[in-house]
């Protein structure tokens, strides 16, 4: 796979100067982080006089900026807004396509493998081994298990994985829909360890993964995703109420594969435990801007 300093290129057939705004902003933020860590002179090749894009680096350029704190939305299932799947036996699993417990209903859709590589920015960007990562997202109809009409008894497309020595967690799932008022996305929370997931206030990071437009356009040509075609045409990364401040610069995933065989989605996640988390339900109930107040895709927020 074509890459730049260890980072997969979103447009592998084009040169480094034409990778898009999100890639450029992420690169700028990486360099800022390196300067803060005192590594900027090495990573930017300031010892030479040539262009920094062509200057060999003796320091691997893998330190990223802190993942932006985001709302957990109205359907977290972490106990902060109604149901709590994190206290149920079986939630720690890699394949989240089926419900667990009293139901085994399986969510249908394009196969998707999601890998999040978590970095400990308080430790110079080292792999954050041992953290627990809770992932959840809507199904191909735009509904959330535990909350949406007809699937309140399901808990599919939700699960927890413990980061390995490389700081990575991997989930087997399906490609999510685009529902009214939001760009296609995947939610996640990071906890210090597995024992901490029983209380949502223990989360050290709450954020969302943005999915690339060209991938979404391709995916939504498949059966079951018909409503997503219209919804995607009405929103953009720039206008989305979560990703719009910087077009998801640090949240836009790298995706490979195709709609027939499935997609592999990857994102590097920088977590800084020296800063105070501001995501989750701390920012309000998290109802997406423009989302239907009730009865629409994603379902109504639960009564409290």
TrEMBL record:
Coiled-coil segments on the chain, per record: none
Biased composition range(s): Pro residues: 290-304
Bias type Low complexity, positions: 272-289
InterPro entries membership: Intradiol_dOase_C, Intradiol_dOase_core
Sequence segments annotated as region (Disordered): 50-82, 272-304
Domain Intradiol ring-cleavage dioxygenases: 110-181
Protein name (record): 3,4-dioxygenase subunit beta
Species name: Actinoplanes campanulatus
């Amino acid at each position: 796979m074509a890459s730049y300093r260890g980072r997969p290129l979103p447009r592998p057939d084009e040169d480094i100067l034409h990778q898009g705004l999100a890639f450029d902003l992420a690169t700028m933020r990486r360099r800022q982080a390196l300067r803060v860590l005192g590594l900027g002179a090495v990573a930017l090749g300031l010892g030479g006089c040539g262009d920094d894009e062509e200057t060999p680096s003796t320091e691997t350029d893998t330190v990223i900026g802190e993942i932006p704190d985001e709302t957990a939305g109205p359907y977290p299932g972490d106990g902060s807004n109604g149901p709590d799947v994190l206290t149920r036996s079986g939630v720690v699993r890699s394949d989240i396509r089926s419900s667990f417990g009293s139901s085994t209903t399986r969510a249908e859709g394009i196969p998707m493998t999601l890998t999040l590589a978590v970095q400990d920015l308080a430790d110079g960007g080292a792999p954050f081994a041992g953290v627990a990562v809770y992932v959840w997202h809507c199904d191909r109809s735009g509904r959330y298990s535990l909350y949406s009409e007809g699937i309140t008894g399901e808990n599919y497309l939700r699960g927890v994985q413990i980061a390995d020595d490389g700081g990575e967690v991997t989930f087997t799932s399906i490609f999510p829909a685009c529902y009214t008022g939001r760009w296609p996305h995947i939610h996640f929370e990071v906890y210090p360890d597995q024992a901490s997931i029983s209380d949502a206030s223990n989360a050290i990071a709450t954020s969302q993964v943005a999915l690339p437009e060209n991938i979404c356009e391709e995916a939504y040509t498949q059966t079951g995703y018909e409503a997503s075609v219209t919804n995607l045409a009405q929103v953009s990364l720039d206008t989305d109420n979560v990703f719009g401040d910087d077009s998801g610069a640090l949240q836009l995933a790298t995706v490979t594969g195709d709609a027939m065989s499935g997609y592999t989605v990857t994102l590097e996640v920088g977590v800084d435990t020296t800063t105070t988390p501001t995501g989750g339900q701390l920012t309000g109930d998290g109802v997406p801007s423009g989302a239907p107040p009730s009865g629409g895709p994603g379902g109504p927020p639960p009564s409290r």
